[in-house]
Amino acid sequence: MKKIVFIIAMLASFAAGAQQRITVAQDGSGNYRTVQEAINAVPDFSEKVTKIFVKPGTYKERIVLARSKINVFIIGGDAATTILTWDDYASKTDSSGRALGTSRTASFYAYGAGFTATNITFENSSGPIGQALAIYVGADRARFFNCRFLGFQDTILTNNAGDREYYYNCYIEGTTDFIFGPATALFEKCKIFCKKGGMYITAASTPDTVKYGYVFLGCDISGSAPENSFHLGRPWRPFAKVVFIRCNLASVVKDLGWHNWLKPGNEKTAYYAEYKNTGPGFQPDKRVAWSHQLTDDEAKAYTKTQILKGWDPALKDK
Question: Active-site residues (predicted)?
Fold first, then answer.
């Protein structure tokens, strides 16, 4: 009998260890008071999922999810009340007097593969002061559900070529190049908000060896900027690839649609396309001649499976 009880206890212990749970609360009611402390407690290179539950609050801290912290799942109760924020910006100087530069300004750095966030706001609160990242995503298979990304210039950096990222039902705002980088990223049913003072939504830098850059599927593009003021994208690197599929484009989108970054050579290498978009900002007859309107057959290449190279980002374990 004692042996049976011991075995049951061991099995229960194993099951509990299969998925670690950590709670963060500023009032001390959780395991930790800061998100960074909770991340530091995650076992390195664990194949098991670690869930970090973040209670409502504004957490002003610069957060780094190291490469060794894989399969981490950060969960907030509500993105509007669970806010991770910091206020670095590119021209700000560090202790040595050196300007931070764009890549060192992020409020949240996600390096660990298999990272997931739900119901969280990622914010750079420095204001309209130049490049200032809300999040730096350098992780393959990174997923974001019901999250908000708040900033001005360079809100989201999708940093690693070949990495796959998925954003579902997220709110993303900014002014200039506020979604940029070389990774492959699928944005599904997201709200893209163009703030006053900017001109470009995307600045992809897709390598020529990578088939998919940014794909926006069923998204809503709107904003507070004037009518006919925002380009859908400009190529940070020559082979940028961006496609908007079945999106609603408000009048904030420029009739021309796309910009060559004042480099005519980019018109021969960048791939910018649309398929069955709607709204006053969708003016296919006025788009730049070097952009594309996909045919039905061409659009078949833009399935979730193909874009993400077989990775299924569905949130199966809530």
Answer: 177
